[in-house]
Amino acid sequence: MIIFEKIIASYNSKLPFAAYKKPNEIHISGFFMKDDSLQYTESFTESGFVFAPFNADEKAILFPFEKSNYYTEPLVLEDSYFEENSFISNIKSKAFHINAVQKAIDEIKNSELQKVVISRKETIDLSDFDLVKIYKKLLKSYKNAFVSIWFHPKVGLWLGATPETLLQMNGLSFKTMSLAGTQIYQEDKKAVWKNKELEEQQLVTDFIQNQLIAISSDLKVDNKETIKAGDLLHLRTKVEGDLHQNYTLKSLIRALHPTPAVCGLPRDMAREFILENEKYNRSYYTGFLGELNINQKTALFVNLRCMQIHDNKSVIYVGGGITKDSNSEKEWEETVSKSKTMKKVL
Questions:
Q1: pLDDT tens sequence across 322-337
Q2: Which of 54, 156, 214, 271 has a Cα at 20 to 30 A from 315?
Q3: Signed CA dihedral, 53, 345, 191, 97: sign only
Q4: Residue 209 in contact with residue 202, Cβ under 8 Å?
């Protein structure tokens, strides 16, 4: 396939690129930059592929449409068996994460903080690194996710298979979702959600609705539903509406990002807690990426279930939402389950 060939050629030539497949689609697309310039957007009025960090105060990287070669083609993957590897999580990392989660639970019980997302990163040595092979495994394993590979020689290499849409927009009409709550998928067993997950998901839904009500019309909020993402189940509520004409795409993005699904509530309070207690820079994890203003359409996805690769190491990022009903040991186990999305393709 042309796009896989372009990925190899661009990566070897140290030229920026982004390749991706949208959820449940049969086409794969790619932006391949003609030079290695590092460009940003603050207005979100340009056309191209955008890659934004968790910190909304930092600028988003843009691969401009006019400075890229753009390709789209039907995705064809050969049938091939791949062995899943297992990696043991670091014990020191476990103790630190459990302590951070317990600190969050205590803060929620004794302050106005309602929810905060605590994340961690895990580094794995790569002995045999084949970029396209790993990306093909992701594409094969996660058909209902936004499966992406993004590279800029001045920033780094990222791969991901995220189940969460930040925003889809066509003209002034938009769709978004609240996605929260996690449990392991068990075949032939109906999902039963506890109060902790139901409350966490409702907090995200209420936040999105409150943020959008002033800048949109015809706002519709669907009922909760259970969706499968890889080997995990999540609670999802779809939200859609029309943006008022005196508001911009940027105002819509700023209203949503970062959502309580990746940050917490109240948003500013949760962000401060994260910066003080996670003790690492999330960078582009829990940021967003995707198509910006392509034929009047925008499709942005939250950068979850992702990893960064450099110096023959894979840095995997995982996290979970903490509420007053959380259990620190179970929250650790949830991050272990989420890390398997990336670990199984390495």
A1: 999 999 999 999 999 8
A2: 271
A3: negative
A4: no
